[in-house]
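Re-run requested by the PI after the first attempt was lost when the workstation crashed. Everything re-entered from the original request form. Ligand of interest: heme C.
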Amino acid sequence: MTSLILAASTQRSIGWALATIVVVGFSVYLLFSFRIGKQELGSEIDTASNRKKHYEDDELETRRLDSHLGWSLVTLAAVSMILPLYWLMEPARQENAAETWVRRFESRGGQEFEGACSSCHGPGGVGGVAAFTLVDSDGGFVAQVDWKAPALTTVLSRYDESEVEFILNYGRPGSPMPAWGLPGGGPLTEQQIHQLVVYLRSIQLDQDEAIAEVASGVETGARNIVMMDAAAAIDADDLDAAVAAWLEDAVDPSSDNYLAYGELLFNNPAAQGANSCARCHTPGFSYGATDADSTDALLAEWPGLSESGLLTGWQPGAGHVGPSLYGVEAHFPTADGQTDFVLSGSEVGVGYGNARSGTGVMPGFGGRVDDDLIDKETGASVNYSQLLTREQVAAIVAYERSLR
Ligand code: HEC
Ligand code: HEC
């Protein structure tokens, strides 16, 4: 981008230089031609014998010559202005071309998305479900489940574009998310994958929407807790007030409900779990094992789950796509260091905690700045919304460090 701006200003400078040369040259020409014209006044030319009688000097040298010279000047001026004008307009033309190109990619990506992705991720990427057949290590049938496909409207907050392209190319093995790119054996070309990513840029939530989404999931969980705790039925207004009071107390690290608050964030159901941790760190969470009761119900319906060892009980944080968090303190000596990691996420090949190596699959929840993209209005790098505040992540980390 910087090089584009540089190139644009170089072109502008060339344009201005040419325009200046033309204007100065033109003025000099005018100056000289008038003075020379004046000197020539009164000079006589005899008519050569091989020429027929032409116009009288008065006629030729005044009206006719003036009009011819006038017109040639006008056309010369027009022609000589085209060159600087071309250079002056070129940057804008290039900018428009780039923008048209982005819009074209975005709309093609949008069409591909509706064709290939929305059946699971919902129209516009708001989240959905995928029917999925779980199999054991020998390929034998285990269970038929509904697997939550997370909303993709905050995916660029959590992952950079190359990480998203990696997911699109190779899918998530063991989940319904198939490999889409040619490198992973899928049908889409590199360009089509890029078009999908350009489309994803256009559906990302702004900061207020992202905060509201996370809050709505936490509130749903808090509501359940308050209703379970209530001795008798509560009317709607009292319930709202009780939920607000519960939350106000629970966010305080010294509250008895602080770990429960961290757990709500860890299990956040909003947007099909897009902002949760449990979908990757708790076995079966994505296909319905969201608490002890629902896990028992699943195990009763599909005995193959425990026989195959895919799901043996309600084990929050025991690991699924991501590793088990039991004993996570051993990898992160301080809660603060663990909080930093959750805010930034992992990067391929970059060590984290006690020098474990990341794969880029652990998302970051603290927002993301994309230095390769420029915001048209502000001229600054594009900024993707922060999903969890430091305080929220600290509550999650406290909950994680309490898991045994
Ligand atoms: C058959 C259903 C299905 C289809 C079709 C599908 N996905 Fe997915 N996708 C999923 C599921 C389920 C997950 C979550 C996997 C998990 O739980 O780890 C997922 C995960 C993802 C993720 C990672 C999100 C995250 O935060 O972990 C991205 C990005 C993604 N899909 C993009 C796409 C795109 C783009 C398409 C279309 C080309 C697509 N998916 C098509 C089911 C699907
Ligand atoms: C899309 C799947 C996914 C989601 C969602 C996810 N994680 Fe992870 N997490 C991983 C993976 C994978 C790793 C291992 C590091 C790697 O491969 O980059 C990991 C590693 C971690 C670790 C380090 C564990 C260790 O001991 O090495 C912590 C702590 C952690 N995640 C916390 C969280 C928290 C908190 C959330 C929610 C705010 C979360 N994760 C959401 C996939 C996920």
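Saved to the shared folder this time. The chain has a mean pLDDT of 92.
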